[in-house]
Amino acid sequence: MSRLPTVDNEAAKALFGSITESRGWVSNLLRSLAHAPDGLERLQAVGHYGRYMSELTERERELVICITGRNVPYAWAHHAPLAEQVGITREQLAALKSGTVPAGLSDAETALCAYVFAYCALGGIDDKVFAAAQEHYSSRQITDISIIAAYYMAMGSIIIGLGVETEPPEILQIELDWQQKKAQA
Predict the structure, then answer these.
(1) Rounded to a whole number, what is the distance in angstroms from the first to the last CA of the chain?
(2) pLDDT means per 10 residues in the chain (185 residues)?
(3) Rounded CA gap, 87 and 46, in Å?
(4) What are the residue boundaries of the structural domains of the chain, listed by start?
(5) Cα(28)–Cα(151) distance, rounded to whole angstroms?
(6) In angstroms, rounded to a whole number, what is the distance separating the alpha carbons of residues 123 and 98?
(7) Which of 87, 39, 95 is CA-nearest to residue 60?
(8) Rounded to an integer, what distance in angstroms lies between the CA atom of residue 177 and that of residue 182?
């Protein structure tokens, strides 16, 4: 699963139960963080907020996540299929993966992508890029975009550092099914 041994104690089982309620299952990434249960609890709460409580559409969230995780194979394996599930094409995903804003997006999504690419570059966000985001998104939504990008940047670092392994396709299907169920609810 990762460079660290699996945690199998009562504290982890309780946390895994709450994570399963939130997300439908417990990923290898979240399992790998169980050595620090308080940290896991807080990080998963931020992830839950970003995925299910922000003021972004599911499609917008997946654009943010795919841009942020494009160079982390684990993140890409999880989120490219979720992005396809919400209508982002393979061609658009290929553009995101290559570091470019894809063609065929709405003006709002184009502004979102430009903002996230700049945000993740850690070199500051050009005033024009920020102004374009403000044309389409509220202050709350721009904050949500930033929180989601920051969360997935942190998770990507953890994945790489701990050597978290990607789950097999049948397990990843659980995530796709959960997201589809959440979208229909």
Answers:
(1) 32
(2) 78 85 86 91 93 95 98 96 97 98 98 98 97 98 98 97 93 86 80
(3) 25
(4) 57-179
(5) 16
(6) 19
(7) 87
(8) 9
Alpha carbons within 13 angstroms on the beta-carbon side of residue 83 total 26
Inter-helix orientation angle 10-23/37-48, to 10°: 0
CATH topology for 57-179 is AhpD-like (1.20.1290)
Tokens of 76: 């890409």
Q: Which residue type sits at 19?
A: I
Size of the chain, expressed as the number of residues it contains: 185
Nearest one of 173, 157, 122, 151 to 53, comparing CA atoms: 151
For the entire predicted model, the pTM comes to: 0.93
Alpha-carbon torsion, ordered 125, 127, 132, 134, to 10 deg:
90
Query: Helix-strand-coil percent breakdown of the chain, rounded to 5?
Result: 70, 0, 30
Long-range pairs for 33-38: beta carbons < 8 A, 24 or more residues apart: 33/158, 34/7, 35/4, 35/7, 37/11, 37/12
